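[audit] Reproducing an earlier prediction to check determinism. Same input, same settings, fresh worker. If the tokens differ from the archived copy the diff job will pick it up downstream; this log only records the rerun itself.
[audit] input (346 residues):
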Amino acid sequence: MRWESLTTRPTGPGGPAALFGADAVVTRTFDTPEFRGITFHEVRARSIVNRVPGASRMPFEWTVNPYRGCSHACVYCFARKTHGYLDLDTGIGFDSQIVVKVNAPELLRRELAAPRWGGAHVAMGTNVDCYQRAEGRYRLMPGIIGALRERANPFSILTKGTLILRDLPLLRQAAEVTEVGVCVSVGFTDTGLWRTVEPGTPSPAARLAAVRALTDAGLECGVLMAPVIPFLGDSPEQLRATVRAIAASGAVSVTPLVLHLRPGAREWFTAWLGRHHPHLVERYERMYAGGSYAPTWYQRRITRQVHELAAEFGIGPARRGQPRALPEPERPAGPAPAGPTQLTLM
């Protein structure tokens, strides 16, 4: 493993900005059941607010990601390629070599207080899950939520982690002063599929129980039905069972997203498919022959089916919310901070 790409030394004209100092990396392992086999690389990040690429289809421009790598170990995770930027393995290394930005809360407070920051919506969980198992030990999210609440800065969280319930009081406090969006990812309810494709996550039932707890606490919580996995989780019966369970959880919306396979994730997923469902490898090669995304006709079919089921069970597709109107701070005008570009979900 090499850490040269992380150095604070200048990278030269046009080179990527350094993320943190190589001499500041502290590597730890913990011999407890939940962390066995996982290595944590504690770093002090140089920036924490990341700009979303201009070509992204996401309805936000800025993200915060306190971790790199994810112990959820989802075989399809599109963010696997980001580990390659750090000279880390994008397969098992992505699942077990977790970079922890230990100064994330204090850094976010400083960046939100900068005169050039305009209070834009901040999205979390769009790269790797901010409520993965590491958060149980490092507890970065309470400080991050607190920083956003103090500035009345709108934000949203997407997660597969039930640990979000630990921070329910903080989320309710933040929702009193700004727009807070919460979304839980549940692509299917098939437990056999879950155990092999998302082995490090809470079960779909546990995630839907978290949705119920969030909504019962007064926080509107949607479900991102992602990914819908072709030939494994897309039968009419499976879609119906999943949407029914989502509706029963009290979710205010359901938004389907078909599996996409970017470079890095594609190779890892294909290897998994060859081990568990070899008869599907050729079908996947044909379906994804045009690139990272399933054909448009297939995506539209899944979306139509899910929306019809959602209407039947009394919930609708997610609608983009508008940030709550907040008093304009008295700050000098200036450009928004040019943070590092961040890969996004879509």
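[audit] rerun output stored. Observation attached for the diff report: The radius of gyration is 20 Å.
[audit] end
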